[in-house]
Specification:
This protein has 494 residues and is mainly α. The protein has 2 domains: 239 residues, no CATH class; 216 residues, no CATH class. The protein is built from 18 helices and no strands. The longest helix is centred in the N-terminal third of the chain and has 45 residues. The chain starts with a helix and ends in an 8-residue tail after the last helix.
Length: 494
């Protein structure tokens, strides 16, 4: 009896650690999203639209190379370090790989941006060079994050990530406080970019400091381990690179194909950053859920019901993002940026971009569901083929539409690609990991979507300014929660 009690106690403690770690991760993502929104506001206030466009173009350009530098190494690190008896050596080998990947990818990025003829004489090359500090330190810190995850010490990640973002927002906020508004001064742009680098360095420094308390963190050269982990990371790297190409490369194509790319990416770039925040929840949910489901599947347990609940949560969250972005695009953009970014009869603005991109934001959750399902079941070939199709369609359509219609064409391309991939990956993912969703649950989701959309439509005419929008967000959030509890969606988290 004592043995049973002891075992139960161990299981309870382990479950508690996992739950606590998961909550810290969620808290970190929510806090980072909130601070990122504030950063968007400050950048929009502090810089002119032209310089804001350079700011967005710089980080948008580096996004692709950042994913190339990651190359799936984080996923491999978590798996390999957690199960190895040589944890420090394994982590050290992966640190070596991360440094090599960083040197190659960021080196290629800087070489490319300085050699492209259309960007000569523009502020973009130097801006990208300064901005590269962010992915450099962030990706180094990302590998150290492995130490906290396997030890269930994610509160250290929360402290490091939030401290980084608080520092960056605080420093940019000081510029705003001391009168930097709509600046055309390149020095202000460079300072904003340097501030991002300072924040990223703080993230790396804190991660390294806290991480060394749990494990000795140092590079370790082992040719056998390096070859092994390159091979293990390659499928992840290829899959994530393909996703980045169809999802992130449009900002760079705008910069390559449009003479007015600064203005185009001023409007479009802020919306893509907002989209990135919208991607956090489904990514986090699937990262947390699918490994557990995969383990249960290997044991022969029925996972269809739990997987169906996961998919329903993704649909609910996607509907919320879709409705707020589509129906409240203008007041949201006015709140998050300034009136200068709103559409006029003469040209489309960031609110137009947000309204169009509301569809990809909804479909993204469905794509990620299929993506992680295939990833979990090792269906690499089907996944990569589908993503490559998305890359080809995206590239062709963007090359045709961007020169004619700018970011509107990029948004239309995104809608098309996300729609195609959502259909393909949902069906292929469902074959790999079947799920069960009852008609009652589907009907509840439809009712929720209709009632929330109706409420947003009724309230929209009242949102005349920023204060009204903030109040409206509070009211509609309360209304949304009431709908969720009334329809029993709160039971999905149990």
């Amino acid at each position: 009896m004592s043995i049973v009690n002891c075992y139960c106690k161990i299981v309870t403690m382990s479950s508690r650690k996992i739950a606590t770690s998961t909550l810290w991760q969620l808290a970190s993502q929510v806090a980072m999203a909130a601070l990122s929104i504030l950063a968007v506001k400050f950048v929009a206030l502090g810089l002119s639209k032209e310089l804001a466009g350079i700011y967005n173009s710089s980080y948008g350009f580096l996004q692709l190379f950042g994913i190339l530098a990651d190359f799936g190494l984080y996923a491999v690190a978590v798996k390999e370090v957690s199960r190895s008896d040589r944890k420090e050596e394994v982590l050290g080998a992966i640190i070596i790989l991360r440094c090599i990947a960083l040197a190659i990818s960021l080196g290629a990025a800087l070489l490319f941006v300085w050699l492209v003829p259309v960007w000569k004489g523009t502020p973009l090359p130097l801006s990208v060079t300064i901005a590269s500090l962010v992915p450099f330190f962030t990706l180094l810190a990302g590998i150290i994050r492995t130490v906290f995850q396997i030890n269930y010490k994610m509160h250290f990640v929360f402290i490091a990530e939030v401290s980084q973002r608080v520092l960056a927002v605080f420093l940019i906020g000081l510029f705003i406080l001391f009168g930097v508004r709509g600046s055309h001064d390149l020095q202000h742009l460079h300072m904003f970019l340097y501030i991002g680098g300072i924040g990223a360095f703080l993230l790396f420094f804190l991660s390294l400091t806290y991480g060394n308390r749990l494990m000795t963190i140092r590079p370790h050269w082992d040719s056998a381990l390096l070859k092994k982990y390159i091979k293990a990371a390659a499928p992840f790297g290829i899959a994530f690179l393909c996703m980045a190409l169809y999802r992130e490369f449009d900002i760079t194509l705008i910069a390559l194909l449009r003479d007015d790319f600064e203005l185009q990416n001023a409007y479009y770039g802020f919306v893509t950053r907002i989209m990135g925040m919208g991607f956090l929840i489904p990514t986090f949910l699937l990262n947390s859920t699918l490994p557990i489901l995969s383990e249960r599947d290997l044991k022969g347990e029925d996972t269809k019901l739990l997987l169906g609940k996961t998919f329903l949560i993704i649909l609910i969250f996607g509907s919320i993002i879709l409705l707020f972005s589509a129906l409240w695009s203008r007041p949201i953009i006015q709140l998050l940026t300034t009136e200068a970014y709103l559409s006029t009869p003469a040209r489309p603005g960031a609110d137009t971009a947000l309204r169009l991109m509301s569809i990809p934001m909804f479909l993204n959750g469905i794509i990620l569901f299929g993506f992680y399902s295939l990833l979990t079941k090792n269906r690499w070939k089907k996944l990569v083929l589908a993503l490559l199709l998305g890359v080809v369609i995206s590239l062709v359509m963007n090359l045709i539409l961007i020169p004619k219609t700018g970011f509107v064409g990029a948004a239309q391309t995104s809608i098309t690609v996300h729609s195609i991939l959502a259909i393909i990956l949902l069906f292929t993912g469902a074959k790999a990991m079947p799920f069960r969703l009852s008609q009652t649950e589907i009907c509840k989701w439809i009712v929720f979507t209709i009632l929330l959309g109706g409420g947003l439509w009724i309230v929209r005419p009242l949102l005349a300014g920023e204060i009204e929008t903030i109040i409206g967000l509070g009211v509609m959030s309360t209304y949304m929660l009431i709908l969720m509890f009334t329809l029993g969606f709160n039971k999905l988290i149990k």
